[in-house]
Write a structure and sequence with these properties.
The complex is a heterodimer of chains A (about 500) and B (about 300).
Chain A: E1 26-31, H1 36-51, E2 59-65, H2 71-85, H3 92-100, E3 102-106, H4 112-129, E4 135-139, H5 146-155, E5 165-170, H6 177-190, E6 196-199, H7 206-216, E7 230-238, H8 247-272, H9 281-293, E8 303-313, E9 316-318, E10 336-341, E11 353-358, E12 365-372, E13 392-398, E14 402-410, E15 418-426, H10 438-448, H11 457-473, E16 480-484, H12 490-497
Parallel strand pairs in A: 1-2, 1-4, 2-3, 4-5, 5-6, 7-11, 8-16
Antiparallel strand pairs in A: 7-12, 8-9, 8-10, 10-11, 12-13, 13-14, 14-15
Helix pairs in contact in A: 1-2, 1-10, 5-6, 6-11, 8-9, 8-11, 9-11
Chain B: E1 2-3, E2 7-9, H1 15-27, E3 35-40, H2 44-57, E4 63-70, E5 76-85, E6 91-101, H3 106-113, E7 120-124, H4 133-140, E8 144-147, H5 154-161, E9 166-169, H6 170-174, H7 176-185, H8 189-192, E10 198-205, H9 207-221, E11 226-231, E12 237-242, E13 245-250, E14 257-262, E15 265-271, H10 277-285, H11 292-301
Helix pairs in contact in B: 2-10, 5-11, 9-11
Classes of the chains: A alpha/beta (about 500), B alpha/beta (about 300).
Chain lengths: ~500, ~300
């Protein structure tokens, strides 16, 4: 197979072109091609990338699943999914080319003949589409299928095509440290670490990536981003919904595995990491892993767990978790956690990070609040600054992404009277652009071979090391019930007030 | 889009106050503005065209547009604000100042209305006349001058490039999907070797776009490339001849998707989006540094005859 270049030295016409798109031909293989994720997210994301001209010109998609289906039937299914779930309308002239690039192979995940058939089909597609033997495999299946799929890919030689092979796997990356290592060992039997793309769609969100830009593209914030000036940091990831139809999954998972081990620790790492030398995969991932290594494991004494009870959310009456369909009445699965975390490094020693996340909170909000220390000396009378609060900087991730800075200002008066004011900036008031879906960003990165936003194995393992001790301690005891529509159990408030601080009300 | 009623003023000192009043009337006391856009609109038709373009791009790039028209009377300004609602009910607002003044007074009037210390672009509509003093004066206020060589001469565009700001050519931006398509044909190593044998390029397109494409090939490959040109109202076909081989990118009519083929490469579809003037202008406003590839292509194209 011909080697393909997108290097300006080899092809001088490339200079200045396609800064954002992928140029190297490839086949994108979806295992679990008939599943919910493939139809809701993957196919619309791939279509939108192609319609924006961001996919390689020589590109094909192959769906693999158990159902018997022809290429044309799969194309019809894909078309229906795009009509329902794509964020843009179907462009008929592009659809024809896109449909031609869609193929389907029927086979089970434990069916070695099916994998061999897939391999043969991929070779024919290379010849027809000029895709040069390059493969991106996306495991859009429940995690329990990962080992058998990866093992059969290895047995069929799919891990060693004429070009490159990359495998994208969705969280959860294990159930704890032991199973995460077991999964990695299985995947490493067929793929090297540099070929593995562990996707956490949260990191593909523009808003999460903005934390990185905010910190490292602005000179004025970073100098005060230390324990010298920051009193504490609060990270809130609140959902107003309950478990809905995911009770069986949630019973196995709980709030720590669902949110803390992945999304929340990733946000914490972005907020607390040292500046990397470059916005490149190894540099960014190393710095994130380093700060997680300095993060103390969650401890029973510094956490509060809760489970939502009955209540009202936004005026709607809500049932208790234990009454949800599929949840045992005596379930002790936590749906809420508040925790005090500490990072033992030069920058953050002595500055706690308070985190809280839960279901059936008063509203859906994700934010990072950096609470600064008070000025060392106020040269005003007590009366003048009686209600003056310390500065705070809030990074709102969702909804209404933006930045809010709280500071003191002189209120109009013949005497000195200081009021606290908020200066709000909404990203949406500066950029009303068409925001790409997280999956578009991450799929394009996987095709381009950019691993910056994907989680490395050492990061996954460190996240489990932080969470595992608490999960072990929580095997006994029961969570405190909090009313749906509240910010968690009373003990969560005690957790922070005992340090002389208080939770923000987002 | 929500637009405030325009306010007509004869004293430019009142402009900021009028815009502030608009903000307090609905757009909030805090504004986000990312750039100044000076538009030279010599005719009433140009003003209308500019209004349409601003309606298309203002929602994604909050800006202050100063639309300048030369007149014979004193200074007059019509001030308005347009806001677009995003998800979450945030508003993106742009300000428009339609300014009329004597030609020699326009640059100083514009200068007094620029938002301080923001990137500033001048969009020059229409042909570029030789020795145009107003253009030179406006370019001096800007970091970038946006022109369109499809309605002007390449020599005129090159002349703008010698002024104080860098130049962005909308015709060059219109060619980007084609340049991407041509480059992609030569990505495979086996085909890339053919770049050493490029002798001629046959282009069915408007003449200046054909010259720019040929200039681009010459400058990138550092060799002379013969241009064979067939006039068309849009770029429809490009064939690069390398020795006895020919690599072709073509599309039918105004389809968004064309095809590419040639020896050693599999025929494949190519996305060739048709970019309207507003989209091109929006892209021009996203460019924040001189485009050296364009400058080299333009230098090579100037003087070349089709």
């Amino acid at each position: 197979m011909a080697q393909v270049v997108s290097d300006p030295k080899a092809n001088p016409l490339r200079v200045g072109l396609r800064a954002g798109g992928a140029t190297v031909p490839a086949v994108f293989v979806i295992f679990g091609a008939t599943g919910d994720l493939a139809h809701r997210k993957l196919l619309p994301a791939i279509y939108n990338l192609g319609a924006r001209g961001l996919l390689p010109n020589r590109f094909a998609v192959v769906g693999y699943a158990r159902s018997e289906m022809t290429d044309d039937e799969y194309r019809e299914q894909a078309r229906a999914s795009l009509e329902r779930f794509s964020r843009t309308r179907i462009d008929e002239s592009y659809w024809t080319a896109f449909a031609d690039s869609l193929h389907y192979v029927s086979g089970g995940f434990d069916d070695q003949d099916g994998f061999r058939a897939l391999g043969e089909r991929l070779s024919r597609i290379d010849a027809g589409h000029g895709t040069e033997g390059n493969r991106v495999f996306y495991l859009s299946t429940p995690a329990s299928f990962f080992p058998v799929i990866v093992s059969n890919m290895g047995a069929a030689g799919l891990n060693d095509p004429p070009g490159f092979a990359r495998v994208v796997i969705e969280k959860p990356f294990g159930h704890d440290l032991t199973t995460a290592r077991d999964l990695a060992e299985t995947v490493h039997q067929s793929f090297q670490e540099r070929q593995i793309y562990r996707i956490d769609h949260y990191l593909g969100k523009e808003t999460v990536q903005n934390i990185f830009v905010f910190r490292f593209a602005n000179a004025i914030f970073e100098p005060v981003w230390t324990n010298r000036y920051v009193d504490h940091v609060q990270i809130t990831v609140a959902e107003s919904l309950g478990v809905e139809h995911r009770a069986a999954f949630y019973e196995e998972t709980g709030v720590v595995r669902d949110i803390v081990q992945n999304h929340l620790l990733q946000v914490l790492a972005l907020v607390a990491m040292e500046p990397p030398a470059a916005f490149e995969a190894d540099a960014v991932r190393d710095e994130k892993t380093k700060v997680l290594r300095a993060t103390r494991p969650l401890s029973f004494e510094n956490t509060v767990r809760g489970q939502y009870g009955k209540g009202f959310v936004a005026g709607e009456e809500s049932s208790a978790y234990a009454e949800e369909e599929g949840v045992p009445p005596d379930s002790n699965t936590p749906t809420f956690i508040a925790a005090r975390m500490e990072i033992d490094n030069w920058r953050w020693a002595g500055t706690p990070f308070y985190i809280r996340t839960g279901k059936r909170m008063p509203k859906r909000v994700t934010e990072v609040a950096v609470q600064f220390k008070r000025v060392p000396h106020l040269p005003f009378t007590m009366g003048a600054a009686e209600h003056l609060e310390a500065n705070s900087l809030v990074l709102r991730i969702q909804p209404d992404e933006g930045i809010s800075l709280r500071f003191g200002a002189k209120a109009p008066s013949p005497t000195v009277a200081i009021s606290t004011v908020n200066m709000d900036f909404l990203y949406g008031s500066a950029f009303l652009n068409d925001v790409p879906e997280a999956y578009e960003t991450l799929i394009l990165d996987a095709i381009r071979g950019d691993r910056t936003l994907f989680t490395p194995q050492d990061g996954v393992e460190r996240s489990w090391e932080i969470c595992d001790p608490l999960l072990e301690q929580w095997r006994s005891g029961t969570p405190q019930v909090y009313a749906s529509g509240s910010w968690g159990p009373e003990a969560a408030f005690d957790l922070i007030t005992r340090d002389g601080r208080r939770w923000r009300r987002p | 889009m929500i637009a405030n009623a325009p306010v007509e003023l004869t004293d430019l000192a009142q402009v900021e106050r009028a815009l502030a009043a608009h903000r307090e009337g609905g757009a909030g006391a805090v504004r986000a503005t990312t750039l100044n856009l000076i538009v030279y609109a010599p005719t009433a038709e140009d003003v209308v065209f500019t209004q349409h373009a601003l309606e298309r791009i203002g929602g994604s790039r909050p800006l202050r547009a100063i639309v300048a028209t030369a007149g014979s009377d004193g200074v007059r300004a019509t001030v308005s604000t347009s806001c677009w609602l995003g998800s979450g009910m945030q508003q993106v607002c742009s300000e428009q100042i339609f300014l009329t003044a004597r030609a020699d007074a326009l640059p100083s009037a514009v200068l007094s209305l620029l938002v301080t210390d923001l990137p500033t672009f001048t969009w020059w509509q229409g042909p570029i006349p030789a020795g145009q003093v107003v253009l030179a004066d406006l370019a001096r206020l800007s970091s970038s001058t946006v022109v369109d060589s499809s309605v002007s001469s390449l020599e005129g565009v090159a002349g703008v490039g010698r002024l104080d700001s860098w130049v962005t050519d909308l015709a060059w931006l219109r060619l980007e999907p084609w340049r991407e398509a041509i480059a992609s044909v030569f990505d495979p190593v086996a085909v890339a070797a053919a770049l050493d044998d490029v002798q001629a390029v046959s282009v069915a397109a408007p003449v200046n776009e054909a010259r720019l494409l040929a200039g681009w090939l010459c400058s990138r490959l550092d060799r002379d490339v013969v241009l064979e040109h067939d006039e068309d109202i849009h770029v429809q076909r490009v064939a690069v001849r390398c020795g006895s081989s020919e690599y072709v990118i073509e599309r039918h009519a105004r389809d968004h998707v064309g095809r590419a083929y040639g020896p050693g490469t599999t025929e494949h579809p190519i996305v060739l989006p048709i970019l309207d003037p507003s989209t091109l202008l929006g892209r021009a406003l996203d460019i924040r540094a001189a485009d050296e590839v364009f400058e080299a292509a333009l230098a090579s194209a100037v003087g070349r005859t089709a």
